[in-house]
# Entry
Amino acid sequence: MHKNLGKWICSLWLVCLISLTAFPMEAIADVPYRTFTKNSYGRNISTQPAYSPAGVLAQEIPIVGDKGETQYTTLQRPQDLFIAPDDDIYIADTDNNRIVHLNEQGELVKIITVPKSPLKQPQGVFVAENGDIYIADTGNKRVVQLNSHGEWIREIGRPESRYVNEAFVYEPTNMVVDKRGFIYVVSKGSYNGIVQFNPEGKFDKFFGTNKTEVTAMDIIRRQFYTKEQLSRQVRLLPVTIRNIDIDERGFIYTVSGSKTEQIKKMNIRGENVWKDIEFNKNMRSFSDLDKKDDIPVAEITDASVDSNGNVAIIDKSRNIISQYDSNGSLLFYWNGRSVVGKSLVGLTTAPVAVETNSKNRLYILDEALGLIQVYEPTEFGAAVHEAYRLMQEGKYSEAEKHWENVLKLNAHFSPAYEGLAQAAFFRGEYERSRELFKLAGDGEGYSDSFWQLRLQWFQANFSTLANSVIITVILIWFFTFLKKKFKFRVIPKMSRLKRKIWYQQAKHVFYILKHPLDGFTDLRFLSKGGYTSAIIILLLTIGTILVKSYYTSFTFNPVPVYAKGSTSTLTIFLATWLSWVVCNYLIGSIRQGEARFKDVFVGSSYSLFPVILLGLPLAALSNIFTLSEMSIYGSIGTGMMLWCGLLFFWNIQALQNYGVGETVVNILLTVLTMIILWVVIFILIGLSSEFFSFVYTIYQEVSM
Amino acid sequence: MRLFRSRKLPIIVVIGILSASLLGSFIYAKSDSVDQNAKAKSDSVDQNAKAKSDSADQNAKAKSDSVDQNAKAKSSVRVASASKPSGSLPDETRFQPIAENNRLQLKADPTSGHFTVTSKQTGEIWRSFPNSQNWQDKLNTDAWKVHLGSPFMFRYLEFNTRKDLLIESNFNAQGGTVTGFEKTDDGFKIRYEMPDIGFIIPVEVKLGEDFVETKILADGLVDEKVYPKGEKDPKARLASIRLFPFLDAQTSDNEDGFLFVPDGPGALLDFKKHRTGTQNLYSERIYGDDLAYSNRNTMSDRNPVSLPVFGLKSNKQAVLGVVTEGGEYANIVAAPSGSFSQYNWVTPEYQYRFKFFQPTDTKKLNGYLTYSTEITKSDRATRYYFIDEQNNQEISYVTLAERYRAHLMQEYGMKPLTNAKLKLQLHLLGGDTEDGFLWDSYLPLTTTEEATKIVNDLLAVGVKDMDISYLGWQNDGYSEYGGAFPVPNKLGGNEGMKKFAEYANSKGLSVYLDASSYTFNSGSKDGFRKNRDGLRDLGSSIIGTVVSPRFMEKVFVDDLEEAKSLGINGYLLGYGIGSFLNTDYNENYLSTREQSKEIQVRLFEQTKEALGDVQVARGNEYTLQYINHLDNLPSTYSYDLFVDRVVPFVQIALHGLTTYSFNYANLSDDYREAFLKGIEYGAVPSFVVTYAQSEELLKSLNLQQFYSTNYRDWIQEMESQYKNYEEALGDVQDKFITGHRELMSGVYETTYSNGKQIIVNYNNKKVTVGSHVVEAKNYIVNQGGA
# Structure
């Protein structure tokens, strides 16, 4: 707990300011960044690092000059990094107009400048399986292909085709080459997508074009604007593709600056496998803490796939490195505080390119620092990767061992519970899988396990169940028969209770259920209701709501106990109910209603009775239902609400002596008044707190 | 339609108009109040705007460049009016002998204000200015040439110009003169005066047995100038001084030395001709950042400096600096060659004024950065131990660490351990608060009875010696602070704890309670009221849940009796008691950083007196004399790119004086490497466990950092680690480390005073060292001479 406290005290201190919870009691790993994952409920939780820094490379590139002396040069605004299958490293050293080739240890192998036709601002580099080097020579608007020794093979210039119009700007920034030899080129600012060349270097087609992001405002504009106005609008264009990567199985990954689907995983036909995923959503970043005034917008710059299909994503402006598995679910993400002018091992400041080598080490090229940060998976990270890989291959039981190992290393890593649960389910240990699914926060899995358990129970106990039903029916019949014959009472007469008025009044609620209109009228004219009974019913309702939200099974309410939030439920319920009563009375009184405040109060309370009646059975039912009976459960719930609503309706009608139309108007006005009431209350609170703080500040200044 | 016919129409209209006007007036009033606010603030708006425009580079460290730029501009303006400052080093022939003893001779030059120290034995000379050898004019900027020649550099503010911008200058650039030079018995007193700006800096230099102590006296320090009427007073005030910053500074031409900074276990910056980056600067506050100045200030991400020590070695000489007075108000600053100038230098920087964020609204979102107006005065002294090469044995960081060890023994009376046994540090996590549906409840994780079981199991597998520290034993559990006593009943209560302590003592084990939680109070127990008793910063805002040190002292001392009655052996302290140090601006409990330090020292004394033993987590230098064990020591550096080597300086200095452990082995990032590091650095193993399954910890939302604590998962590892440590280090717990070196890449050798050697191989393949083979990620033990 005491670990590296100083390092993080400031960040925690800021967190504290926001949440004012426990002070600095968080331990931090011995790396200059923090690693998080999301637990089953989407909360950010910190974990031990999944990757640890393994040093920096390419900090300085030694060049032997003409006279044999060694000069040290640094990378200038490098834009791309590529790691060849043999783990050699290629860097597009953009502002130095060269490609730097290093070996795995970071020692210089060669520098490629193509003297025959010098490179100009190359922004991308790719090495094909046969060793050919492809360079996105951005400044010269071409792709250069060299053989493995750096000797010229050919260049691929602007695509010529009738599908490519004149306005198309061709400035290659990066490219990949697939196994068939097709070349996929990213062109700067191109909204047409990836330019796909066939192996001969001829234009084939545009690939993986993004869809246009249309906002609601655009649709409205289109409806109302004239043609002329529309033509003056900025044309809606698809988001451009920034970067590209390819994995062993031929999936092509594109990186775009869109809001969702920033990373697309596309098969050869250009279909996106990762639909509707929003990457890097709700992630914590130190840059947010430091720059509270203007939180930087995410800027995902590159992605890289490792041999297990996990994808590492880098975000340049927020400095987040995240990793997703091959299904697009988050594994980890990490970031640290980067301070201008201070460079740390393992901490990026402006990451532009990421690559993974055959040992699953991550290499991240930093544009600002001009070097490569190297990370290697920790024991924990490797264990998680392995478990995910096996699970994806369907080897649940094999994955189980790895998940157990992951949990031994970090019991808070909830995806592991999911993995174990699936393995247990697979094996038929439904009781265990149910518990594990609960830990993993998976309501569906929980429900499925329960379905199996219920089936087993029915199978085992069907005869007993059937027999007991028959016996109960016989017993009841016998009992009613006896009761008829001897006329005895089962429940003794509670004469003392009966004498209490509130008891009588409360009992009236059953009458209301049967004869709502009459019953509510009686409230008013026969004094069948009073404050005491109304409050009792209100309290019962509150009790029912609490019990219901506590006992509703995990299937239908998959949240942890602490998140069920008793206080918030209660506050919202009471505030709504009370303001309803007040507003309804006010509206009634100006709209010639006849109800007194007492009537509205009592009536509104009595109308809640269905909740008491059905809430508990509903909670009980949720514990024997599974998601396949969702419709029954849902309709009972809706029925309860409808019944309540109807009672409210009748209660207004009867008590205020309204017609149906008037009642509807009354309800609408009440709702409107409630809204106004709350707006005014919030304004008042806001203003008075401003005022009080103003007075307090004056007091402070005077007293100081 | 009834609405319009009814008589109530006028009423509705009136209500409507009223509410509309009310709303309108609210909105108007709101905008108005904003205006007024703006007007009220108008005089600070300027500052504000400036602060905002400058917000990108709030960080002084990151900004040092721009400060430098500014300083250059400023000093060049000043230079024109004052006498031409000399951009050269003082002439050594002008130095007169001042004092000497049998080892060293001190010479000084009253004109330049510099001194030199000569070793009588070897003739090595240490200068208070850079070594002129290898000086190359073109490698240093004009501004830095003046800095290099000056006896001190300083930073100041002009409050009437801009409140948040430091101006960097130095004695020579200000055209300063020495106005008083007085020989004393063992040194000299000197008065540096800078009439332009009105600063007078009195300094005392004393020669000791093998050291020189320099001291800036609080008495006589002046940083105000009386301006004649009509002349505008820029209100220049002192912010910090680096006294003799280039003492023994060397260039990297010979690549024969290093700078040592106290980051983590110790970090070295080698003298390197080629080094990327021109902004490499290490600057860290001794004993860490101060929360009283934390609002909106980016606090350091580096390991806090817990030992105020630094060093420099070049060729056949070295100097070890120890800040002996006013350490709590000093930074340690180091820059390798190629950054700022061609020299490698390391120095303390004494702080006199502190940057803080003055909020102008209650939400503390708006405001401006400024410096404290009051000067924080106290004597600031640094002792420079001069070390020269003996018997052709090259000076290394081990030599420096050994000198520091001697310093700790001489100055703090620390004694070498005798017959010390290797003890496994067992931390037990007691309990925490569980968030519930209607109310929170207590979540027991290791009750005292279960603790007995754990200890029993460990004894059974052969872990003979342990120190047991109970975390989260306090009344509401680990993450709730305040009202520590009594031990909660669900944990076993005071009685249970007493029984457990008795049991442990009967087995010869010690029980410690973690009492660092006294630093905070998250509730209202102990009579704590946040507004009255909480730590406040300079802007008078309350800081989180931190308690005023004086209030904490009261509560802590009140509880000591009860702790004593439990029969425990001691406390494990940390956080605000021994680790971090804060100034408190709470009117009820005012305390300076120095006084906070004294409070902490008192608490250590009293704990030791009442309970017998004290451990501390990440303790600062002033706690070392009281402790039995140093817990949770950082084992790595802060990942600065300019650090070339990480060395066990702290461990070499402390081994044999006290035992120490690193982070809990079961929460390591890399289990094997952490274990090897422990073996290499001579630590003892440390674990944190619970009796409850690790899953149980999920019920509390504040225990995320305890990834894996189920003791059943770790008992085997505890056994094997204990046995391995015992075998490797069991017999050297009371021996000093006398040697440490890197044999080849990733292979390190540690030597103890009895000749025992441990060779650790971090590489993924086995290596051969002399006649020994060390397996991959493994180590060997050489019994050596003993």
Q: What stands out?
A: Confidence is low (pLDDT under 50) at residues 1-6, 26-83 of chain B. Chain B has three domains: 77-251+309-328+346-412, 424-734, 736-786. Residues 615 and 666 of chain B are 20 Å apart (CA to CA). Chain B touches chain A through 94 residues (CB under 8 Å).
